[in-house]
Amino acid sequence: MADRHDLRVIPLRCPDCGDGLVAGGDDVIFPCRRCGTFRELDGEELIWREITHAAGPDLDGPHETMRVMTRLPFWVFPFRAATPAGEVATLRDYLLLAGSVMKLTPGREEKPPLLFVPAFAAKTAFVLRAGRLLTLRAPAFSRSSGTPGRLVPIVFREADARALAEAVVLATVAAERRVNQRFLDAFAVRCGAGRLLSIPFDGREGRLYQPDLDLEI
Ligand SMILES: [Zn+2]
């Protein structure tokens, strides 16, 4: 029989402002609509989770071009990858590994590559696809000064997203490497600390479209 002390109801109240947190069935990180902070239940404590909002026409820019968009939450991790040819630790190394010919703005190529993993509910195939497309694109979003009124619920914890890291990075690697056993034996991904980022998307014929990246996921 369970000890009665095992049962404890934790009120989902924002520790900052006291307002009720918004919590749906599968949510693991809860927003406060009043003060815009996000909380995650860690044991019995509601810990603060920082979230950055990428700038977009739903929050920034001239009033006449503002529009409602869908804000999707992503986990973003700096990462390193082990390969038979050595460690991939910079964005330049990573783009070579991925076979991408993308031009980077000066100063970015020495930075660590960033892995993107959806934090919202989606089928695994979609999570991998969206993660692959964003990771390959290596977007450098500017930070919004606004706070979105609504964000698609966060249903994956940082550890859940981290568990997908290797699969997402591997999916971005050129196909001939992905079928090479020697490459696969050496391949490993190590992630740094994850952070949450919301990215605005437009709905377009049942798909989601990111206008700044000209990217459909
Ligand atoms: Zn609050």
Descriptive overview:
The protein is of the alpha+beta class and 217 residues long. The protein folds into two domains: 9-49, no CATH class; 51-216, no CATH class. Helix content is 21%, strand content 27%. The chain is built from six helices and eleven strands. The protein has helices at residues 91-98, 124-137, 158-163, 165-172, 175-178, 181-186; strands at residues 29-31, 38-42, 45-49, 51-53, 70-83, 86-88, 114-118, 188-191, 195-204, 207-210, 215-216. Zinc ion is lined by residues 14, 16-17, 19, 32, 34-35, 37.
Structure summary:
The protein is an alpha+beta fold.
Q: What is the tally of beta strands?
A: 11
What value does the Rg take, in angstroms? 19 Å
Helix percentage: 10-25%
Beta-strand percentage range: 25-35%
Note the gap between the termini.
48 Å
Number of helices: 6
The 3D shape can be described as globular
Topology (elements, then pairings):
Blueprint: E1 29-31, E2 38-42, E3 45-49, E4 51-53, E5 70-83, E6 86-88, H1 91-98, E7 114-118, H2 124-137, H3 158-163, H4 165-172, H5 175-178, H6 181-186, E8 188-191, E9 195-204, E10 207-210, E11 215-216
Parallel strand pairs: 4-9
Antiparallel strand pairs: 1-2, 2-3, 5-6, 5-7, 5-8, 5-9, 9-10, 10-11
Helix pairs in contact: 2-4
The structure holds zinc ion.
